[in-house]
Request: fold
Amino acid sequence: MKYVLKTAAPKKLRFDLSRDLNPQQLAVVEAAPGPILVLAGAGTGKTRTLTYRVARLVAGGVPPERILLCTFTNRAAREMVSRVEELLGIDMRRCSAGTFHHIGNRILREFGEAVGRSSDFGILDPEDARTLLSAVVAEQGLAKLTARRFPAPKVLQSLISLATGTRRPMRRVVEEHKIKLLDQAVAIDHVAQRYAERKRQMNLCDFDDLLSQWMRLLEDPELASVARTLRARYDHVLVDEYQDINAMQGALVDAMALEHRSLTCVGDDAQSIYSFRGADIRLIADFAHRNAGATILKLTINYRSTPEILQLANRSIRHNKHQHPKDLQAVKQSGPTPALIPLRDVYQQAEFVAQRVLELHHEYNMPLSRMAVLYRNHSHSLELQVELTRRQIPFSVRSGLRFFEQAHIKDVVSYLRARENPRDELAWVRLLRLWPGVGVQTAETLARRLSGAEDPNQHLRAGASPLPARATSGQILAHQAGFARGRARPALERLARLWAVLEDPTQVNPGVMIRAIVGAHYSDYAERTFNNASVRKDDLEQLAGFAERFPDAREFLSELSLLQGLSAENVVAAGDPDDHLVLSTIHQAKGLEWPIVFALWLADGRFPMKQSLRDPASVEEERRLFYVATTRAADELYMCYPLIEETGDGPSRWLRPSRFLAECDRAPAVFERWQIEEAPSDADPGT
Ligand code: ATP
Ligand code: MG
Reply:
């Protein structure tokens, strides 16, 4: 008998490619699979083109799960994926899309066994990573041994991270970034190795591990079969914001695409702004070397901004010597000339922005969400945050948000971490220390026993009954409570009872767990410890509400760690109404656009930063950052700077506008200076 298997009919395109895309973009979308690099300026539709390429692949019959899409933030990935869903009317949930860290996390949950991580590994956030680094330094006696002080954990952390990200030996990284520490390079390398060992013992990954362990899966000769499975999983790899990836990410992309060679990367060398984190623009330059037969394509038409805004951006970026020259052509109609607004001081700067925002909102019906305020450093937004709050203008701050980094949040989360990954000694120590009568030493000893690093029966007193093998954490706690003295004993007994609840396999919802922890312990602790206990308890209730939506604690913890990670993209909103003004660092605003953009603190020495002025390459990076800022604006751009800076104790200082503006200041003008006058206040008795 003959039996014919029908292949599913390719999805009908619901859209007309030649209507939605220009010919240059269409060429990218329709290019045959193979290595492709799209090198193009801001707002030329790189992200849009990549999205359409995904849609076209799926429409042509590629199952969504065979596509790997790497983006700068998870939010960007979600937006691209849902756009594809809109275009095709199909479910794209099985597409692997997100940041490199997000994807690495997923892959290691599945294949981590091969590199010494079981699927329940915990993720170390940067603060915990520093704690572990200090422990390693102390353990090796380095703090005392060397004549000079050993570098602080923060410095070690960034050196280790750079060495991993750039895939270079520690010695070279130290040479390049901290030459003064060169005589300690060997010891630093030792610390790095020991730190790696400790993470493995504790079944933990830091953010860099999410990439470097994934890389090991792909290139360790002993893991060749894992590598084959991993590679065979995807038929197409696509990468947005390629200009900001580091050597590790570049290698990952190349390795994942090694067999099928269907690799589409889009980027703009003029927007490379992460070299401080090891991003390497040379990856673009030698893309064609690494990928024989690569096609390099260009997009030259900017759809985002008015000609006025582009003129300013084009004129500025031309001052960079090490830059592929490219002028963006506008298709939009003419709009207002970008404004340069000198203000008396930071307070007046904040008042100006708040007042102008309200004006645009009320008089021109501009929704708040269509405006953004961008700045070089997070601290540049503080006065504005105060002013917005005073005027009750809802706003959100996009940045490595502090909500999840606060002590009370991390305390409660440490319970979940220890529950999910009992080998996580750091989590145990953190939560044990919260209990009355439990000091550092006791906490550390207990943590070793709970994590399996030490046998709880080892120091048993004569006559005491031993713990059965394979005891649960709850049982170990109950057992240990029996030997505790003073206040620690009832405390540990209570903790053991709480743990029995947390361990209950029929109850896996992380929101419920958080409420149990707060109810049985943390609420009390907060009352005793914090002045603002009630605010903190509210926070925890919010956290429980957020956690509730996850199927289990592991998913919740992964999301949490990745949220506060490199790709920090959380939004803390005052009340979080739908319509709010966005405040963001320029770094975090990459790839985004708003009709109206305010840029703050465009004073020389602040932007570019003083520290960058010694090194021409750094100034060029700052100029690229300025280019990113200006090209976020579609219609109106307001560039503000304070004329006077208070210096705390010393005399105040006069500031000049950023050199990035000064150097563009010639005819024909690309910006217009505004003069701010203060209206006499209504309440002024003189009027
Ligand atoms: P960036 O460099 O900032 O990441 P980009 O090159 O990724 O920018 P997109 O964000 O994809 O550019 O596109 C910029 C804007 O232009 C978006 O609003 C997009 O929808 C619009 N756009 C791009 N191409 C077209 C087109 N062919 N027709 C209409 N609008 C377009
Ligand atoms: Mg983009």
Summary: The first helix runs from residue 17 to 20. The first strand starts at residue 35 and ends at 40. The pocket of magnesium ion (ligand 2) is lined by residues 46-47, 240, 591 (CB under 6 Å). The chain has four domains: 27-114+209-299, 122-202, 307-394+568-673, 407-562.
